[in-house]
Amino acid sequence: MMQIFMPLNFLGFVYREMKGSLANIEKMFGLLEHEPRVRDCEGAPPLRVNGGEVVFEAVGFGYGPDRRILHDVSFTVPPGHKVAIVGSSGAGKSTLLKLLFRFYNLDSGRILIDGQDISRVTQDSLRKAIGVVPQDTVLFNTSIFENIRYGRIDAGDDEVREAIRLSHLEGFIGQLPQGADTRVGERGLKLSGGEKQRVAIARTLLKRPPIIVFDEATSSLDSQSEQSILEAIAEIARGQTSLVIAHRLSTVVDADTIIVLDQGRVVEQGSHAALLQLGGTYARLWDIQQRERGAVAVPLP
Ligand code: ATP
């Protein structure tokens, strides 16, 4: 009997895991209610990731024919680099990432991962290559330990414990009545935004995808949570290509490249130091933050 139950149980687990990671992407982009808009090309091969270089090449896009959202967007993220995308609300930051996941087809230009046009590979392989840390992650009605294991269902207990340590969840878990066995979700413990984001980071640490997309929480975090999340992000981003939608400049300072978007156009790109020297849009944003002395993390205006 066990022989029948075990695989069924395992399949159920795999199904929930797949639904879980897709739900995270959908939740990140508010896509739950939508029909798929893109289809795989006939005989499309899987994406082969080798390093994880991401290239946006003259990308133009609008959700409808009447309004262009992105205009001629070009930038390159070399393998293993961290790129931060900044810009005012509505500038097109989330749209860029939705296009990287190929939730929509482009109007013009191309997006390449390791030289392969993402519109020519299977969507399944594309989405498997990209790990997502959303602002508000989906938690299941099970223990916090199993919630983290959803990042990679075959991960051993030691690996889950290591992910907990690296994502700075040990202190939080240590205070729970049943530690990592405490149930979360509807009938269990409620987690704060920062704690949920660290669970998402721990899952991503277990998954170790070659490309990571991080949507920084807009809600203000206390400076200790902010610092521990920054350290946890640095841990998952180590050696991996990462794209961060940054709402706070504190996340941006150590990025290899900062892309400044304004009304769907890349108006500046470079390191923090280079952009300050340029004295343009980014330098103005930075000045605003500097004037807010005493605040560790000031949201971008
Ligand atoms: P924020 O910082 O506020 O999240 P953002 O820079 O991420 O903003 P996007 O979410 O990419 O901006 O939105 C860019 C523009 O595209 C906005 O004007 C927005 O209204 C529009 N937009 C976003 N999603 C859709 C959609 N599904 N259909 C039509 N227009 C959309």
TrEMBL record:
Subcellular location: Cell membrane
A molecular function (GO) term: ATP binding
Keyword annotations: ATP-binding, Membrane, Nucleotide-binding, Transmembrane, Transmembrane helix, Transport
GO cellular component, one term: plasma membrane
Domain ABC transporter per the UniProt entry, residue ranges: 54-288
Transmembrane segments: 1-15
Superkingdom, natural source: Bacteria
Entry annotated with the keyword Transmembrane helix: yes
Membrane-topology annotation of the record: Multi-pass membrane protein
The protein, known as: ABC transporter ATP-binding protein/permease
Source organism per UniProt: Exilibacterium tricleocarpae
Lineage of producing organism: Bacteria, Pseudomonadati, Pseudomonadota, Gammaproteobacteria, Cellvibrionales
